[in-house]
Each structure stands twice: as C-alpha cells, then as structure tokens.
Amino acid sequence: MRKAADRLLTVFAWTCGLGIVAVAAGIVVFLCLRGAHTLGPRLLFDDVPWWQAVSGQRPVFGGLWPAVVGTLCLTLGAAAVAIPLGVAAGVYLAEYGGRWTRSFSALVDLLAAVPSVVMGLFGFGLILFLRKTLLPEANTCLLLSIFCLALLVLPYPIRTTETALRALSPEMRLLGPSLGLSQWQSLWRIHLPAASRGILSGVILAVGRAAEDTAVILLTGVVANAGVPGGLTAHFEALPFTIYYLAAEHRTGDELDRAFGAAIVLLALTAALFVLATWIERGLHRRWRPQP
Amino acid sequence: MTSIRFVAMALVLGACTGLLLAGCSGGSPQKTGKGDGAAVSAELQRFDGLQGKIDIAGGTAHIPVMEEAAKRIQTAFPEIRITVAGGGSGVGVEKVGQGLVQIGNTGRPLTQKEKDAHGLVTFPFAIDGVAVVVHPSNPVADLTPAAARDICAGEISNWKDAGGDDRPINLYTRDEASGTREVFWEKLLAKGPIAEKANVVASNGAMKVAVTGDRGAIGYIGIGHVDDAVKALKVDGVEASQANASSGKYPVVRKLYMNTKGKPSPLVQAFIDYIRGPEGAKLIEKAGYIPTQDE
Amino acid sequence: MKPEAPARESNGRAASFPRLRVGLQTDRSDAWMRRATLAATVVAAAGVLLILAFLAAAVTPLLVSGEFFPLLGKPWRPFDEPGRYGIGPMVAGSLLLAALAMLLAFPASVGICCFAHGVAPRPLARVALAVVHWMTAVPTVIYGFVAVFLLVPLVRGALAAGTGFSVLSAALTLAVLIVPTVTLLIHVRLEQLGPDAALTCRALGMSPAQTLRHVLLVQARPGLVAGAVLGFCRAVGDTLVALMVAGNAAQLPTSPAGSVRTLAAHIALVVATDWQSPAFRSIAAAAALLFVLTAVLTAAVRRLQRPPTPRGCHAQGG
Question: In whole angstroms, what separates CA C67 from the centre of its chain?
C-alpha cells in the first residue's frame, strides 16, 4: 500500500512537471500561431514610416506604437520613483534599528498586501478628492498612474534591499570601519555592491510589475485611443490595456490580429526583462559569491 | 560596483528618454505645418488656430465616429489632442458632469435631473436603432416583443421554445452604465426584468464579440454595429434597419448625443460643429448611423 | 572609538556584532545619509497611510450608519426603486473562485516541487524550474487573453451549457496564474532545508518519492502553508482574469457553467464619479473588504513563518 502511494506520487509529480511545461509551451505556441503573421512595422506603426513615428512627426493611429510608448513611460516613471525611494527605505530599515523600524516594516507589509485594483481606486478617489479641495483641474493622467504604480511596486525594492543588507556577513560589515570608512562610505562602496544581487532582484520585480499591471491604470487614466502620451497630465495608452480592450471589443478581424500581435510584443518585452534579470544576476553572483 | 553603476546609469538614461518621449510628443506644434501635406478640407479649417485637448468618454456606440473624426483632425492639426474612451452612457454623463472630460457621449436622452444637477448641454448628432442580435447560424429570424420579454426574463430558456434549434439560450446584457441597455429595456422589454444570470459585457463591441462566438447567444447592439458577423432579428416583422428606425416603423430607436458641461469651449464647439457638419455626416453614415440635428 | 553595547535588532535578538561609529569628521555625511533614508521611509509610510485613510474615509459613513455588514448580503441591483447596492454576490464570487483556483493549483504546485526535488532527473528539474520562473514574469492579461480565445470555447463545448465565460474557465485560468507563485514559495522553502536531509534519506535507501513524502514535504510544511495562503491572496486580489473570463453576472453562482463576478472585477466595472453616491460607497466597501482580507491573510502567514532549521532524518517528525 505504501508502494502504491509512492508510485502515485511519482506519477503525479511527472504529470505536473511535464504539464506545466506543456501549458507554458501551449500559451506561447498559441499566441505565435495566431499572431506571428502580424509582426512587422505595420503592427507598430500602421502605415507611417517608422522614423517619422518615433520622432513624433506624424501620429500613429491603428498601430501599437502609442501603447508601447505609454507602457515605457509608465514603467520608467514608476521605476524612477519607486527604486531610489525603495532602496533608501530598505537601507534605513536594515542599517538603523530604532523604535519605529518595526512599525515601518509592518506598514511596508501592509502596502504589499494592497490589491492592485484597490490601488487604482485609491488613485481615482484621490483625484475626486483633489478636485473638490486643492486642485479643481485635477484629472486622471499619466502622472497619477505613475504615482499609483510606484506605490504598488514600492514594497519590492524595500524588502529585497532590507533582506539583502541584513544577510551580509559580519566580516563584510566590519570591513568598512576597519578601513576607516564612515558609515555612508561603507554603505555606498561595500554594503550596497555586496547586496546588489538582492537589490537588483527587487528592481527587476518592480519594473516587471509596473510594465504588466492593468488594474491600476484602468482606473487612473488609460484609454483606448490617445496617441503617444502628450505630457504628464494627459490620458495615455498602454499595451496591457490595449490587449484587454481589443480582446473584448475588437470590431474587425484586423483588430483581433492586432491584439494577438500586441500579446506577442508584451510577452517578448517581459521575456527580455526576465532574461536580462537572469543574466545580470548571474554576473553579480560570479563577482560576489562568498570566497572559500 | 561597475555593475551597479551600469544599471543605475541605464535606469537614469532610460528615465530621461522616457520623459523626453513623453515631452516631445506633447505640446510642440509640428514645424512642417499640416500633417502629411494633404489638403485641409473646408470643414477642418474651423480648427485652424485652435489648440488644446478634448477628452471624450461615454457611449460605446459613438466610438467609431469619434475615433475617425479624431484621426482626421489630429492628422491635420497635430497640436490638437483628442482622446477617446468608452464606458457607457452613464459614465459619459458622470464624467462630463464632474468635469473629468470635455464631451460625454450618451446613447439616450439626458434626464432633466441630470441636466439640472450638472448644467449639461446636449447635442444630438445621429439616429441609431437597437437591434436584437443572435449568432448567424440561428434559424430564428423574427421575434415578438412578448417573446423577447420572456427570453430576457429567463422564462424561455431553450431556443426550441422560440422557434429555433434545441439549444440553451445564452443571455448577454450590458452593464448598468449603458444607454443601449436602457433604450432596449424601456422600448422592447417595456421595463421588464432581465435575468440575473445574463452575462454582462461592457460595450457594443464586446456584445458583438460575445454573440459572434456563441451559437446560443442573444444580445442587443446598436444597428450601426450590425454586420455579417451577427444576425439582427426582425421585431414583429419589421426589419432592424436604420431606415426603419428613422421612419419610426422599427420601435427601438434612440439618438446619439454629445453632451458638454455648460457652453462648450471654442475647440469643443468646433469639434461638435464638425461632427454635425457635412463631413461629419459622411463619417456618421460610414459608421452605419443616420445623421440628424433635431433634439 | 568605543564600541557600543550590542544593538538590538528589530525582532529583539542581539545584533551579531557591535555597531561601530568611526570618527567625528565624517558625521555630516552619515547624518545626511540617515536623514535621507529616514525621509524615504517616511514617504513610503505616508503613502500607505494615505491609502488607509482613503479607505477609512470612504467606508466610515457606511460603518457609522450600520449599513456596511448588511451590504455584504444584499444583491447588486442599482436600477430597482430604490437601488440596491449590495456586494453579496461579488463576495461569494471572489471567495468561490479563489478557493477553486487554490484547490486546483495547490496539488499541482506540490507536484511540480516534487518533480523538481528528486523525482525527475536534474536537467528536467531545472527546465521545469526555469519555466516556472518565467511564468511568474508573464503578464496577467496574457493569461486572460489566451483563456478567452482558447479555453472559453473549449469549456463551452465541453460543458454544453452556459457561455464558456464561467466559474470553471475562470478557476482554471486563475489556477494557471497562481501555480508559479505557489510553486516558487514551496521551492524556496525546500531549498532552505539544505541538501542534508535528502542525502541522508537517499543514503538510507529511500526512493525520491519516499524522501519527499516522509521527510521533505513534512519539513517544508511552513512553506506549504505560506504557499497556500499567499496563493489564495493572489487569486482573490486578481482583477483581469475574472474580468475577462468569468462572465461578470452579479449573481450567486449556482453551477460551474454559471457566470460570476468578483469584487475586483466589480470595482473595475462600476465607475462612479460622485464620491458621495451609494454606488461609490459600495465600491469602496468592496475595496476595503478585499484589502482587509489580503492584509489579514498575509499578516497571518508572516506570523506563522519560522526560520527553517535544517534537520536530519531524526524521529522528530514535522
């Protein structure tokens, strides 16, 4: 009877292991089958020559370029806000033990537990509130989405920085002071580089999340049709939303094909991010692995 | 250390590029003048010298017209920016009432309460009927209002009881903000109940996608959205066409309205006049509606 | 240069070495660093507090008037006279979908971990782990998208009832979405156990399946619990899959082929711009409920997490 249970577990494990690979492959194959034929400059730029589209000379309608730019702006904006803030906060939580550290830590955990749609509703509510009080002209826009996305991904760099710094060995921590470096110098020149692998994983997580999140931007300013973002206070397009919108509401077969193309583009983008992350992490691991 | 420097610099560079892109596509008017050099029609001339942005939201039936107009205007005058969103008539009223958008589209007339509460001004621009649609393979071709009421209430749940194949009826309805839903509910269902189990979709386009993919489906969309992918049923023998809707023979009719909060700004007024002008009329007809100007 | 007494870490244990302060002339940059990092932490904390304040402000009128809990039972029928803005069906929908998804995903995750930790040869195990890692990077909208065009027609045909946009399709898609997360949580825990336990068991002649069943999975139980709870949280908090695949009918689901709406999809669908209207309050109540649920579950998991103590195959039991 015990042997049967072991057999069952083995068979089950094989099924699951092969199954998950099959599912992943199935997703990629399905998207490529239905969408590969759309790939090309036409998908991104419609019939506008690419140099004119990229330089902003001619607007693109019916192509993915505005959505791609929108996603890039969102991701880079949210990263530019969240990563320095997050790493700094993580440094504080790891390096300074004060009575507030535990409360701050708890708050960060609370932030990590906020579902993305609640974050989006918060952003929308914030605008409604601002309209009634300080800024009657406030509106949902790129800036609001960047702010909300930054809040959403903030826990990742905070947590990974804190964990990575705390995990440094005592020898590493004594190295700076033993050489006469101040705390700041030790941090900047020794601790952070030594913890860079962990910090970077938080950075990559944050960037990946900001690129793919849809619920937040759904409520804070993304629209189906806006062209390349016209500044921080404008509505904008984004790839994940374009995919969702075209999937639900495509009017022609062409639009559906564009949705498949967009799905492949987004998948390629996140896959590239993933490969980059793995590559950098391997490089850092080689540099910083503990010496025997 | 070099890896961190490299990554940090990459991030900073990337952020700069991103913000640059956002900026350079923003306000700076194009030096080369009018877009791709195509002649600017007399209708579009009314936008000459105007700049700013128009945010449009609301009815999803309006979207094809709005998008096409936005494309033409922005191609000719790149310093004007127009964004188009959906959401349904209710969202249109709320957003324009709160001042979040400049034009709120509705597929139903505004109530007096809405007009008073927000000071809205309404501009009808097209006539559209609401058709009951099923999958093209469905043999049923005609529906009485009574049968429609029974189906939507869930009392008839198989197509064979309505003259079709032996197949369960899958109901699709619109979300609460939809003007199309309201017109359909008032005029065909006589305010009868819609079964709770009906699938909810968020726009005319989404309804069409849903009905196209499901052989047992029944739903409702604006006649302007009807094409070969779906089959529009006759109501009491009257075909669901815009001509019948306009003449009054087809009972389920509504107008499409643009609404603004108070008197529109010059740019918004120009847009409204463009839609209600001759070139706009061609766009409206291309989208499948009948242009109109009456209240 | 005087070493201070061993500082206490925030969890009460002594730091592993005394904190040293070096020199006076560098105090300025140290003070600057401390201020800057403190400011960053305060900003982050302020952000969280702002969100909490918003939710509290939106929900307090409901709590005060005693309407909050009744809302959880009422149906959503805004066009009745008077309109009813209850979120009962959505609460049921969220919990049901998340529970079903976990029911499907948890065994699968355990199976994949077993596959990667002994049952399969090393190269295959690494492939599976790499695939799982990659899947965590796949955007949610892609899962929903593929589900709409691949899974929904299959379910429609297979069930021969309903529209395909159903509890079953959504649960399957959610399960695929959360399997990578849960798998990685369990996998990390298994890795932390170290190779000793597994090696000892193999040395004793146990097969991989026996090792896993009797030793590894038992010792990894905190990871299993964390995986289950956090996977459930992820499923409850997800918006897009339910929005695209579950049908969005505001009703209590009665069959796997029926359409259902989750709290998250409800918030995304209903746009209410008047923040004093009952519709907006109802949405805010849904948001507060979702947040409280995920916060409580996450906190509970953190409490239960204990640092792993790699043990050999003693008779200690899990």
Answer: 29
Confirm whether A1 is domain-assigned.
Answer: no
Three-point CA angle B288, B292, B294, nearest 5°: 150
- Beta carbons of B97 and C273 less than 8 Å apart: yes
Average pLDDT, chain A: 88
Provide the chain A residues 46-105 that lie in CB contact (below 8 A) with chain B.
55-59, 61, 69, 72-73, 75-77, 79-80, 83
Domain presence at residue A14: no
Is C112 in Cβ contact with A13 (below 8 Å)? yes
Q: What is the DSSP letter of B44?
A: G
CB contacts, 8 Å: A245 with chain C: none
**Closest in A72, A225, A234 to B70, CB measured:** A225
> Nearest residue on chain B to C76, judged by CA atoms?
B196
Per-residue pLDDT tens digits for B191-219: 888 888 888 888 888 898 889 888 889 99
User: Cβ of B97 under 8 Å from any chain C Cβ?
Assistant: yes
Report the sign of the C-alpha dihedral through residues C253, C256, C259, C261, in that order.
positive
In terms of Cα–Cα distance, which of C82, C231, C257, C227 is closest to C158?
A: C257
In a domain, A12, yes or no: no
Judging contacts by C-beta atoms under 8 Å, the chain B residues touching residue A217 are none
Count of CB atoms situated within 10 Å of the CB of C28: 11
To the nearest whole Å, the CA of A268 is away from the closest chain B CA by 18
Q: How confident is the model at residue A55, as a pLDDT?
A: 82
| Per-residue pLDDT tens over the stretch C158-195 | 887 778 888 999 999 999 999 999 999 999 888 888 88
**Whole-number pLDDT of residue B266:** 92
Which domains, ranges and CATH numbers included, belong to chain B?
A: 44-128+255-291 (3.40.190.10), 129-253 (3.40.190.10)
Chain B partners (3+ C-beta pairs within 8 A): A, C
- Among the partner-chain residues A107, A187, A267, the one whose CB lies closest to the CB of C138 is A267
CATH number of the domain that residue A227 is part of: 1.10.3720.10
What is the total count of domains within chain A? Answer: 1
Do β-strands B103-106 and B52-58 pair in parallel, antiparallel, or remain unpaired? parallel
Using CA atoms, how far apart are residues A45 and B20, in angstroms rounded to an integer? 19
Cα atoms in the 13 Å half-sphere on the side-chain side of A279: 7
Secondary structure element (H or E) that encloses residue B129, with its range: strand B120-134
Contact yes or no for B37/B83 (Cβ under 8 A): no
Calculate the dihedral angle through the C-alpha atoms of B271, B273, B276, B281, rounding to the nearest 10 degrees.
-70
- Contact status of C53 with chain A (Cβ, < 8 Å): no
What's the whole-model pTM score?
Answer: 0.87
List the domain range (segments joined by +) for residue A172: 39-288
User: Do B189 and B152 contact (CB within 8 A), yes or no?
Assistant: yes
Dist. CA A80–CA A86, nearest whole Å: 10
Smallest Cβ–Cβ distance between A92 and the set C23, C41, C124 belongs to C41
Does A275 map to a domain?
Answer: yes
Q: Determine contact, residues A262/A242, Cβ cutoff 8 Å.
A: yes
Please name the residues in contact with B230: beta carbons below 8 A apart, sequence gap of 6 or more.
B133, B134, B135, B136, B208, B211, B212, B221
Chain B residue numbers with beta carbons less than 8 Å from the beta carbon of A136 are: 99
Q: Which residues of chain C neighbour B177 with C-beta distances below 8 Å?
A: 270-271
Q: Does B200 touch chain C if contact means CB atoms closer than 8 Å?
A: yes
